[in-house]
Amino acid sequence: MTLVELTQQFADIAWSPHMLILLVGGGLFFLIYSRFVPFRYIGHAISILRGKHPDDGAEGHISHAGALSSAMAGTVGMGNIGSVAVAIMVGGPGAIFWMWISAIVGMATKFFTCTLAIMYRGKDENGDVQGGPMYIITQGLSKKWHFLAVFFCVVGLVGNFPLFNSNQLVQIIREWLIVKPGYFPANESTFMLDLGLGIVVMLIVASVILGGIKRIATVASKVVPLMILIYMGCAFFVIATHLNEIPGYFALIFTEAFSLNSVGGGILGTMLIGIRRAAFSNEAGIGTEVMAHGCAKTNEPVKEGLVAMLGPAIDTLMVCTATAMIILISGVWQGTEAEGVNLSAQAFSITMPGVGPYLLILCVVFFSISTIFTQAFYGGQCFAFLFGRSKIRYYQYFYLLAILFAATASLQEIVNIIDAAYALMAIPTMTSAILLAPKVKAASVKYFAKLKVNQLN
Fold it and tell me: What is the residue-wise DSSP string for 60-127?
């Protein structure tokens, strides 16, 4: 049995229908249990993000905007570009519909999990405030649940390795900037070329991640919003120039989502593929984003939950939909051997001839590297919880070496490893959030009542 086959079996077992119940069912529970209240305060969430409700003297390391930018740096990236291409190639256009559903319920999930991230923060051996599912479990639940915190951190070490982003970044640079222009023979082995590009990426990443979350947040808050604007600008151009085709593609997404003969293997198969790719894209319920929001400088948990809730809306409903439209309009998904980000690059080449692939490459470079920065922080948090913050440099060195493995491995191996780890990370994250949901609801009732009084005055 090959490594691809072995990892594929593991990923398929991890993403069996029980994950559908846990992630989508759990998200629906949060949606109904909250009586949709957080969704009525999206405007208030945006005002918090803009700094209109500061928390003077609050504990934490970064601002609300910095926390969201750091979390978005971990989600808005190759999951929105390469992973959408994977979803369409494997599950057909119908997989996009289930990505949307997952994002909508994921907004409720993020509200609950990231409110808990502030409500149950812990401290490391240096006395610094830290957040994440492991602290939610140890601070919010009894000692009998401690094993779940350890389990999350163990699988989190794997799930946060820089595999997918490093792999796809190297692929697009190699194909579009080196091989296609003729600087490297197309029929020769690219192993040494990939390794060389991996070393360059590793050195860039090292210059930032060794500075910790504050440096990561500073870089992310400057880079991510600009790249989203450029990427969405490209998408709006493509959509505007093919406006008459858009209704047909939306109809295709809806019909394929409920087709018994879809390429994803019927309704259930397409649903699982869509939810699997959405989890990789927006990470709602996985637990990674909880670690970023847990570092926010606030003493009001509900405020951070509201800010975090904006993530899936930006990430999946906007950016992933834009990518899907470009791929569907181009037609490349119907007959090509390209995969992942190279499929997206082909789509950009057709819909925006000449300049398209290079604008995509610009976005991919910054999206990928900013995501790698954030994943280094997430993995470091897991490592520090297990082994202590004083030893975190050992993890960071190993993390940097993992970039070299990712640069030279196949896409399918990478996707399978990360998929399996994400599914396992969701188990402790969602379990603890469901058990502690009454605490979030009580805090929400109190916060929104106080907000209403303040507005009246």
Answer: SSB-HHHHHHHHHHHHSSHHHHHHHHHHHHHH-THHHHHHHHHHHHHHHHHHHHHHHHHHT-EE-TTS
